[in-house]
Amino acid sequence: MQRRLAAIVHADIAGFTRMMEGSETRTFRHLKTAQIEVWRPAIQASNGRLVGTAGDAMLAEFGSAVTAVSAALDIQERMAKFNDTIEPEQRMNFRIGVHLGEVIVDDEDQNIFGDGVNLAARIQAMAEPGGIAVSRAVRDLVELRVEYAFVDGGEQSLKNVSRTVQIFHVHHTKTAVPANTAALANTTTRMVPQITLRFEGTDSAKTKHSFEVTLEKLMSRSDGMVIGRAADQCDFVLAHPTVSRRHARLRVAGEALQVEDLGSTNGTKVGEQALKAGEPVSLHVGTKLRIGDVDMMLRHL
Q1: At what angle do helices 24-34 and 65-83 cross, to 10 degrees?
Q2: Residue 273 sits in which domain range?
Q3: What confidence category does residue 190 fall into, taking pLDDT thresholds of 50, 70 and 90?
Q4: With CB atoms 3.0 to 4.6 Å apart as the test, which of 75, 103, 281, 283 could cross-link to 112 if both were Cys?
Q5: What residues form DSSP beta bridges with 150?
Q6: By CB neighbour count within 10 A (0-12 exposed, 13-18 middle, 19+ buried), where does 66 fall?
Q7: CA–centroid distance for 261 within its chain
């Protein structure tokens, strides 16, 4: 057994189970083609090593954060071209997470383990479909190509990780939106309509819930927009018994996107922070928002 510092890239396909249910054979064939024609060449071009695959998940190791991010960008660019050649319902949108940390190497099969690998997997889950998320350790060491930018996703509480981890998303500069919404108020009128915020997630019974709002509409409502169970009193309806009739309010205040609990029965959480009624808290892209028993993630389209 040996230990070494490595840049770890973890990837997973968004909606893979649904795709397999639709057509196992076709999905498997597309996945194998992506591995051979996209992943392996991109990893090799950045002097990385494909550690292994398990179902739709892939794990790769690189000697530096710079080459790891370069490979991740190359993979997503190649995947965009690959997806153009197949049916829309079969397109494979990988989420990629990148972290720099110490790994344990199994001398027998060269597999890697440890906290660094676990964090890369958790960060991957925070990425948008077709996107890349990285830890602060990676962001601090990497200077992106001019057409890309890091967008702060805020401090996140990750599953089975005792400490919070600051996440950064890699976006193309043409579509990059500050994840903590700083400078949203300075976004030009021409660009605002292009930005859609999407909240999606499940309750404890795994029932799916979601709603969307354009940034333009949210910014036009100085009093904010209400989330709750009552269709006649709310802008966004979450039909769940643990959600109050008027549960929480979304608004853009100054340069921040905020959520405010409206004195709900079962409470509102941002990450692990329980909100006090009437005290707004900032939201970030990639933030987990809990409304009653419904866990949601904020993304933008």
Answers
A1: 140
A2: 196-300
A3: very low
A4: 103
A5: 170
A6: middle
A7: 24
